[in-house]
Amino acid sequence: MFDIGFWELALIGLVALLVVGPERLPKVARTAGKWIGRGRRLVQSVKADIDREIKAEELKEILERQARHNPLEEIQEIGHDLDRSLRGTRDSAEAPPPKADPPPPKA
Questions:
Q1: Could you tell me the pTM of the whole model?
Q2: Are 15 and 25 in contact (CB under 8 A)?
């Protein structure tokens, strides 16, 4: 994240020593460490929450895809397609059957 080397840290420490003073420097450093730790934990918590949400969305999408993908329906559709193609082949090879007269109305 930040590219801070030894000399940058030494300069920050020297400035802090001059500004804060040697008596209060340990307390300030401890307080700064606590705040930095809290900030890191907050960032890690947010990252974990985002990862959990992404995984939940991916799982939801997978479950929806599986719910839409019904093998039985797919097999039935293939059977209907095969039946239609066989009827089309049979009908084109033979003459169409004669139409039957409608039955007489009942009185």
A1: 0.49
A2: no
Residue numbers of the domain that contains 53: 12-89
* pLDDT tens figures, 51-88: 999 999 999 998 888 777 777 777 888 888 888 888 87
Is residue 77 one of the residues assigned to a domain? yes
Q: Which residue's structure tokens are 């985002």?
A: 50
Percent of the chain with pLDDT over 70: 81
Pairwise CA distance, residues 25 & 20, whole Å: 6
Q: How many folded domains does the chain comprise?
A: 1
